[in-house]
Specification:
Helix 7 packs across helix 8 and helix 7 crosses helix 9. The termini are far apart. The strands form seven sheets. Strands 13, 16, 19, 20, 21, 22 and 23 form a seven-stranded mixed beta sheet that branches. The chain has ten helices and 23 strands. It has 466 residues and is of the alpha+beta class. The longest helix has 16 residues.
């Protein structure tokens, strides 16, 4: 039965859950807390930075009050919907803080309704080590963890007092599913009764019929810790693959083995384009924006797409349809400390040259600062990757999932070139266009690449072909 004090406590202490940032993500890693228990916070104040599979995201708190509890330490991967911070919205009222549910309580803790929390995208478990909120439709894991710890203190196995919902991290649950292992049958050896990867592998190993079942006290491995870098000996370093880097790896493997890639190359004299870049830098209409060769290349690709609209398409495997896009969200590959990300300029086809320059500058600066939002990387249609900034002549880029083409731009170098019948030093670069051969045949891909090259050779075509 709910007492008046329980009701007042519920109104006083507000819990903020890990939000879904709107891209179907299921978990995020807490990179940094900006507040600590006892700190005063206001509605809209950023309290932590988390890393999803797509980007780093800053989360604001939607309450005014005093931080009561941080539920997870930095470096912890948390499921969407789990409570990460509790705020006292009525400090000094004299009510006692809500205590954890006792181990003997037979009923699960009432689950708060799932709702979308406001997210500002720019872009430890307190007291115990296993305080976690269960997913919707399952019993809470907090009483189970408390009972397991209490059971071990009384000399009993933690297995005997676990609830039906075993404690395990999402990657461990996936591993068990892949191996066909029922987690309810796995003996946990992790701290607080958490099932580790080693436990799942042990359960997958056949055991002789007469052999006794393993118990948690035997050869218990060290608790899984949210380590960033693990050094093994003096000859190698092992870095956990997670977050953005993990998502990149999965996406690239999926793209490489799903879409049949074809790559074509062309070497082009871009001397006139480099002269145009120099002139635009002095143009008052371009004041305040960054002008570089990438700007003209981006505009050239947009013109080539307008002339060859079929290249701006996507393959819908589920419906067996080709989806032609009537807009261009132009992706720009950017190298960041967290790995290569590809934010895109929305509706780039509608932008003037100054608008495109401003959008490019903002995109690059935001990416370098690690503030690119997941929404900024969603919905791309065609991408440019500038490998020339690393001094590389060209490459064979892999398509971003859901896109049909990606243009690689090599280094622009002074080279001997036949110009007007004579060998002269000219600014030359090599372009490479990879495309999905299910959507783009050799003729269409060649036309797109040839159009881009023709514009870079004679940039006046930006006007005549417009």
């Amino acid at each position: 039965m709910t007492t008046m004090n329980d009701t007042s406590n519920a109104a006083r202490f507000r819990e903020f859950k890990m939000p879904d940032v709107g891209e179907g993500l299921t978990e995020a890693e807490i990179l940094k807390w900006y507040v600590q228990p006892g700190d005063t916070v206001t509605d809209g104040q950023v309290v932590c930075e988390v890393e999803t599979a797509k980007a780093a995201v800053e989360l604001p708190i939607p309450y005014d009050g005093v931080v009561h509890e941080l539920r997870f330490p930095e470096g912890t991967t948390v499921d969407v919907g789990q409570v990460i911070i509790a705020v006292d919205v009525a400090p000094g009222s004299g009510d006692a803080a809500p205590a954890p549910e006792p181990a003997a309580q037979p009923e699960p803790e009432p689950e708060a309704p799932k709702g979308r929390q406001p997210v500002l995208v720019g872009y430890g478990v307190a007291e115990t080590s296993t305080k976690r909120r269960a997913r919707k439709g399952t019993k809470t894991a907090v009483p189970a963890a408390a009972a397991a710890i209490q059971g071990e203190m009384n000399g009993h196995s933690a297995v005997a007092v676990r609830e039906s919902r075993p404690l395990a991290k999402p990657p461990v649950r996936k591993l068990a599913k892949d191996l066909g292992i029922d987690l309810a049958t796995v003996v946990p050896t992790g701290e607080g009764g958490i099932i580790t990867r080693e436990d799942v592998h042990a359960a997958a190993t056949p055991v002789p019929a007469q052999a006794p079942a393993p118990v948690a006290a035997e050869a218990a491995p060290a608790p899984e810790a949210p380590a960033v870098v693990t050094t093994v000996g003096a000859r190698e370093t092992r870095i956990p693959v997670k977050g953005v880097r993990k998502a990149i790896a999965q996406a690239m493997v999926g793209s490489a083995f799903t879409a049949p890639h074809v790559t074509e190359f062309v070497t082009v004299d871009v001397t006139r384009t480099m002269k145009l870049v120099a002139e635009l830098k002095e143009d008052k209409d371009m004041a305040g924006v960054r002008v570089n060769p990438l700007l003209i290349i981006a505009k050239a690709l947009l013109v080539a797409i307008r002339r060859n609209p079929d290249v701006n398409s996507a393959w819908d495997e589920a419906n067996q349809e080709i989806v032609r896009k009537h807009y261009v969200n132009l992706g720009i590959a950017a190298a960041t400390p967290r790995g290569l990300i590809v934010p895109n300029i929305k509706d780039a086809h509608d932008k003037t040259l100054p608008e495109l320059a401003a959008a490019l500058g903002e995109l690059v600066s935001t990416a370098r600062e690690g503030r690119t939002s997941p929404a900024a990387m969603a919905g791309g249609t065609v991408t440019i990757t500038n490998v020339g900034v690393f001094g590389v002549d060209t490459g064979t880029p892999i398509l971003n999932p859901g896109e049909s083409a990606i243009l690689a731009v090599g280094a622009i170098k002074l080279q001997p070139w036949v110009h007007k019948g004579k060998v002269k030093p000219r600014q030359v670069t090599t372009l490479a266009l990879s495309f999905d051969h299910r959507l783009v045949d050799g003729e269409l891909g060649s036309k797109v690449l040839a159009d881009v090259a023709a514009i870079l050779e004679q940039p006046k075509r930006l006007i005549t072909w417009a």
